Amino acid sequence: MPGIPTPATVMRPLPPRRGHPPLRRKPVFRVSGAIIAVASGKGGVGKSTTSVNLALALKANGLRVGILDADIYGPSMPRLLKISGRPQQIEGRMIRPMENYGIKVMSMGFLVDEEVAMIWRGPMIQSALLQMLREVAWGDLDVLVVDMPPGTGDAQLTMAQQVPLAGAVIVSTPQDLALIDARKGLAMFRKVEVPVLGIVENMSYFIAPDTGARHDIFGHGGARKEAERIGVPFLGEVPLTMGIRETSDAGTPVVASEPDSEIARVYRDIARKVWEQVSAHQSDKARTMPNIVFE
Ligand SMILES: Nc1ncnc2c1ncn2[C@@H]1O[C@H](COP(=O)(O)OP(=O)(O)OP(=O)(O)O)[C@@H](O)[C@H]1O
Ligand SMILES: [Mg+2]
Q1: pLDDT in tens, 194-240
Q2: Where are the alpha helices (DSSP H) in the chain?
Q3: Number of structural domains found in the chain
Q4: Which protein residue's CA is at the shortest distance from atom 25 of ligand 1?
Q5: Which residues line ligand 1 (CB under 6 A)?
Q6: Would residue 2 count as lying in a domain?
Q7: Does any domain span residue 8?
Q8: What pTM does this model have?
Q9: What is the pLDDT of residues 55-65, one digit of tens each?
Q10: Domain with 277 in it: what CATH number?
Q11: Å from CA of 215 to ligand 1 middle
C-alpha cells in the first residue's frame, strides 16, 4: 500500500560501525525533551502498565508526552492505548506517530507482526529502536517515556549506551525476588551513568473490593527500603487493583478513564516526583537533557 512503511523500509540496517562503538554515538534524533526509560529486571512486574499511566499522568500535569514501546518481542502499547492500524509515512523517510489520549505513540506492534519480530537478534533490535527514535516525527515533546522489555538484553544495552537518556524509572513488586532483579537493572543504568530517577513499588498492596480490607500479598515496603538502601528516590506505591488490570486490558488506562480516582492521584504524584528528578538532574548535567536536532 502506498504511504505505508513496509518492514523492509522501516528496518534498514544501520551502517557498519568502525572500531569499538563509543559509549554514546552522536545521535540524529528528532526527539526534543527528556527521554525516560521505565525498566525492571524481572518480567511481568507492571512496566507497561506503569509506563502508560505515568505518561498520562505527566500529560495531566501539563507536559507534552510521547511513548516509545521498546518491547520488540512483546509490544504492549497498541493494546494498552487501544490503537490499531499502521502509521502513515510522511515526507522523506519519516513516519507519523500514532496518537490516543493526547499522547504520541510508536511501537513495533504497529509495524510488523509479532511472529516476524520474534526472529530478530541484536543488531536488528538496535536498528529498530534507533529508527523509532530518529525516523518518527515526534514533534515537540517535553518527555518521551520508553517502555522497556524485561531483563538486561539488547534493547537495554541500546537504550543505555546509544540514547541520551535523562534517566530511568525502576519498577518492582515488593517481594525479594523481584527486588533482586530490579537491582540488576539498576546496576546496569548506573554503570553507563544514566541517573536512576527512582523506584516505583507496583502491586504494593491489595484492597479487597468487597470488604475494603488491605492485604499485603507480596509483603509490602520492600521497594521503599531498597530505594533507601541504595540512595535513590522512592517514587510511590501503586496498589494491586482489579480496576488497573481491567482498564489496561480494555485499552482505557486508569489515569485517562478515571482521572478523579485515588489511583490516578497516585500516578500523578509519581509523575510529579519523576519530573522533579528529571529537572534536578537537568540542572546537574546538561548532557542528560537532550534537545538534539543534529544533522
Ligand atoms: N497495579 C496493578 N494492579 C493490577 N494489575 C496490574 C497492576 N500492574 C500490572 N498489572 C497487570 O499485570 C500484568 C502485567 O503487567 P505489565 O504488562 O504492565 O507488566 P510488564 O512488566 O510490562 O510485563 P513484561 O515484562 O511482559 O513487559 C497485566 O495483566 C497488567 O494488567
Ligand atoms: Mg511490558
Answers
A1: 899 999 999 999 988 888 888 888 777 888 888 888 889 999 999 99
A2: 7-10, 47-60, 77-80, 114-117, 122-134, 154-162, 176-191, 222-230, 242-250, 254-257, 262-284
A3: 1
A4: 43
A5: 40, 43-49, 71, 74, 76, 149-150, 202-203, 238, 240-241, 244-245, 248
A6: no
A7: no
A8: 0.86
A9: 999 999 999 99
A10: 3.40.50.300
A11: 18
